Amino acid sequence: MSIRITVLGATGRVGALVVRQALAQGRQVTVLVRDAGRLPADLPGRSGLRVVTGQIDDPVAVAEAVSPAPDAVVVCAGLRYRRGHPWSGVAGRSDVVPAAVRALLPAVPPSTRLVLLSAVGVGESWQRLPWIARAVIGTSSLRTAYRQLGAAERLLAGVPNPVTVVRAVTLTDGPGSGRTVNATGRPLRGNPTVPRADVAALLLDCSAEAHQGSRVLVAAA
Questions:
Q1: Distance between CA atoms of 219 and 221, rounded to whole angstroms?
Q2: Which of 5, 29, 190, 194 would suit a FRET pair with 23, their CA atoms being 20 to 30 Å apart?
Q3: Which residue pairs, CB below 8 angstroms and at least 24 apart, start in 92-99?
Q4: pLDDT score, position 220
Q5: Sorting pLDDT into bands at 50, 70 and 90, what band is 1?
């Protein structure tokens, strides 16, 4: 039987890659988007894809997106910046990620796996960042993004569902390597990066792995 997943944040760069890779694997994919016109042009009409239109924090839209209950929900939502970079300020609401998680949790049964894309530097991993990275985050809207990701992680910490949080280092648009980028427990030196395509593959792998409880992984090339 095909694995069914729901993707929140499918119009983002990582989210769109998750959808493409999942469809290529023969999965049944539901996406919840505010505006279907913002999906990449190659996705609408693809076999195996169902599009639900609505706000990511609307309980009614979220309930539709996770009905029937999927095997996993992958949350790739994130902030949008006014001019595409974090020094231009946040466009729209800043709490989109924890708001999406709050709407999601009452709508899914405990058996549904939850996978959240987060970032190295959130929570206790702040100390793993070099000082220059901490300075960049502290002087830009990345500070808001990291604070909201931390709130989303805390919401997921006490749920009965199997949860995987994937904290990624700096994301790039380079081609995927095809290798695992699970760098959990590995020292991070300098300013490590990781291709978005490889992070998408790791998120998909996590959505299908059998484990219980909560875990936090690090994604780095």
A1: 7
A2: 194
A3: 94/144, 94/148, 95/148, 95/151, 96/56, 96/57, 96/148, 97/148, 97/149, 97/151, 97/152, 98/148, 98/151, 98/152, 98/155, 99/56, 99/57
A4: 95
A5: low
Helix ranges (DSSP H) in 127-171 = 131-138, 142-157
pTM of the predicted protein model = 0.95
The domain that holds 171 is classified in CATH as 3.40.50.720
Range of the domain at 102: 4-219
CA distances from 99 to 4, 64, 72, 111, 138 (A): 23, 17, 18, 21, 23
Are the beta carbons of 127 and 71 closer than 8 angstroms?
A: no
**What average pLDDT does this structure show over 73-95?**
85
83: CB partners within 8 A, 6+ apart: none
pLDDT tens digits along 165-216: 999 999 999 899 999 999 999 988 888 899 999 999 999 999 999 888 999 9
- Residue 196: burial class (beta carbons within 10 Å; 0-12, 13-18, 19+): buried
Least Cα distance to 101 among 50, 144, 52, 161 occurs for 161
Task: Give the Cα separation of 217 and 221 in Å (integer).
Answer: 13
Structurally, how many domains does the chain consist of?
1
SS3 172: strand
